[in-house]
Design a protein that fits this description.
It contains two helices and three strands. The protein is an alpha+beta fold. Strands 2-1-3 form a three-stranded antiparallel β-sheet.
Length: 73
């Protein structure tokens, strides 16, 4: 499932939610930088979960990590 962060609010939404909120917009099949800029959104990138530190522990997602493009210099 593709998720996107709304730049103005930081809210996370799915592709279908964004389409529903923009019924008068014609979207391309593949979303790229031009779509992200027009809608002022950023894709949420997945990351692998860490291994549990002990038996019977479960790792669950409970938030998002924000990383700026400048931090990869």
């Amino acid at each position: 499932m593709s998720e996107y962060r709304i730049r103005s609010s930081g809210e996370i939404k799915t592709k279908s939610e964004i389409r529903q909120e923009n019924p008068n917009v014609s979207f391309p099949k593949v979303w790229g930088e031009s779509v992200y800029e027009a809608l002022e959104i950023d894709p949420v990138l997945g990351a692998s979960a860490p291994d549990p530190s002990r038996d019977y522990k479960v790792v669950v997602r409970n938030g998002y990590l924000t990383v700026s493009k400048d931090s990869f210099v």
